[in-house]
Every structure is written in structure tokens, then in C-alpha cells.
Amino acid sequence: MHATPPFTFNGGTRDLFEANLVRHQAKEIEHEVAAAAVAVTLVDQNGQAAFVITRRADHLHHHAGQWALPGGRIDAGETAEQAALRELQEEVDADVAGDAILGRLDDYQTRSGFVITPVVVWAEGVDMTPNPDEVAEIHRVPIADLDRPDSPRFVTIAESERPVIQMPLVGTLLHAPTAAILFQFREVAMRGLSTRVAHLEQPVWAWR
Fold first, then answer.
1. CB atoms < 10 A from the CB of 198, how many?
2. What pLDDT, in 10s, does the model give residues 46-79?
3. What fold is seen in the domain 11-147?
4. Helix, strand, coil percent values for the chain (each to nearest 5)
5. To bridge 102 with a disulfide, which of 120, 123, 151, 175 should be the other Cys (CB 3.0-4.6 Å)?
6. Is 113 helix (H, G, I), strand (E, B) or coil?
7. Rg over CA atoms, the chain
């Protein structure tokens, strides 16, 4: 049983998501490639729960102008949780304490050589300012938008037998890994399911 959208930003919603994440056994991927973490950051948007998504700066060498969750490489000696909170601070100037972490989602391995660990964060009362070196825009998107009847979409491509996931959000189509992570957040945290997403494919242009 899960709350009914639009998911009020309050203690009841937080408790529901945390309980669902605790029940979910997040799948870790053993790897020899680079490790990264992203923050699925839940914030207040006019009384409703929303997630934070950014558009990367246009001058970046990799994935310039793309939509992404705040995140980046895990430094030596860091946990995924520590890296996610550090990246929140560096990218959007959000100072969030460790007790705001609700749990993890499954690791997702990208075609470009990363294993990403998604960390779900309840960020109450935070102000955000984009770091112009990394971020062009910050958006707060109601999590109820993840529950749209037309989302997600799955398409096939000639280059892979795996389905490519698309999520219509922020006036465009989001793709994996971001779309896969948000889809699993919907399934696990919002619906209490144990849906896996490692098999969901990225579009070919994201393979490099």
C-alpha cells in the first residue's frame, strides 16, 4: 500500500519512502570501472514532494547540456552516501546532513564506464544555487509526475536486445541512467515494489 499522489512533503511521506527503501534489497554491482553516486533529492515544492534535477552546463566536456541528478565520482575513502551529499553541496550548494539519507536504490552500470549508486535524500528546508562551473539550471519536479500514465516508455533499437527507457519530464525525454533511476524510485519508494532496472538500456548517443 502506498500514499496517493501528489505526495505531501511531510513526515508521513518520508516514513513511507524510508520503510519501502529499507525493505528493498538494493543490488550492488561488483565492478572494476569508475564508481559514482547520485542523489535522488526530495524537496518541498509548494507543500508537495518533488525531486531535484539539473541541466548540466553547456561548456562541460562530458554530457554537456544534459539533464541529470546531482552526483559524480566517488572519491577514495568515500562511501556512496558521502559522495552524494558532497556532490549536492558542490553542484547546487545544498548542505544536507547524513541523517537525511533514506536509503539506496540498485547500482546501475552505464555504457560509458561507470557504476552509479543512487542515494535517496530527504532535504528539508534547503536553498539551492547552481554552481556555474557544473550546472546551468536547477528544477524541482513534483514526484507525482513520475506516476503519469504515459511514463515510462520502452523502445527498441537495432544495437541492443535490451529495452531503452524514456521518461517524459521537464519538457523532454529523459533516458537512462537518470530515467532508470527515477523509474526505480517510483516503483520502490512510491509503490513499495521491488522492480529491477539494470536491464534497461541507454540510447546509443549515451554510450560514450
1. 14
2. 999 999 999 988 676 666 668 999 999 999 999 9
3. Nucleoside Triphosphate Pyrophosphohydrolase (3.90.79)
4. 25, 35, 40
5. 120
6. coil
7. 16
